[in-house]
Automatic annotation (TrEMBL):
Entry-linked PROSITE patterns: AP2_ERF
Source domain of life: Eukaryota
Function per UniProt: Probably acts as a transcriptional activator. Binds to the GCC-box pathogenesis-related promoter element. May be involved in the regulation of gene expression by stress factors and by components of stress signal transduction pathways.
InterPro entries: AP2/ERF_dom, AP2/ERF_dom_sf, DNA-bd_dom_sf
Localization, UniProt: Nucleus
Keyword Metal-binding: no
One of the record's GO molecular function terms: DNA binding
Gene3D superfamilies recorded: AP2/ERF domain (3.30.730.10)
GO biological process: one example: defense response
Biased composition regions of type Acidic residues, renumbered to the chain: 142-152
Protein name: Ethylene-responsive transcription factor
Main location: nucleus
Length: 152
């Protein structure tokens, strides 16, 4: 039993680093069925603010950026620092008002991506996704052998 716990702990670090490389933006994650969700931890609390579920990673990331900007101010680390608008500030900085504002921004970005993109399903693919590989096809050599020797 103890050995299993040690190996699970050791594997957890690798899983975390792999998961981080699969996430294209900070503050978001992808559900098994392809939707992107955003949430943020409240400052000095253990609770999180749910920011919504979106069709695209960009929409979820923009919702996160909106929330982190209102929670941490202009020095916050944003996914899209050039895209944040300082106008229309919130007077009420409660979790509910931040959630509402972030959801508005995310929904607006989602709608833009779906109407402008046409193929919005392509934007749902994570950066590590590859098209299916034909396993019945013989692999092609990457480079020619300079001596022209066939090793097969």
């Amino acid at each position: 039993m103890e050995g299993g716990g040690a190996s699970a702990g050791g594997g957890g670090g690798r899983a975390v680093s792999r998961r981080r490389s699969e996430k294209p933006y900070k503050g978001i994650r992808m559900r098994k069925w392809g939707k992107w969700v955003a949430e943020i931890r409240e400052p000095n609390k253990r609770s999180r603010i749910w920011l919504g579920s979106y069709s695209t990673a960009v929409a979820a990331a923009r919702a996160y950026d909106t929330a982190v900007y209102y929670l941490r101010g202009p020095t916050a680390k944003l996914n899209f620092p050039d895209e944040i608008s300082g106008g229309g500030g919130l007077k009420d900085l409660s979790a509910a008002s931040i959630r509402k504002k972030a959801a508005e921004v995310g929904a607006r970005v989602d709608a833009l991506h779906q109407t402008n993109g046409g193929h919005h399903h392509e934007s749902m693919k994570p950066s590590w996704y590859q098209d299916e590989i034909d396993l019945n096809k013989k692999p092609e050599p990457e480079g020619e052998d300079p001596a022209g020797v066939d090793y097969w």
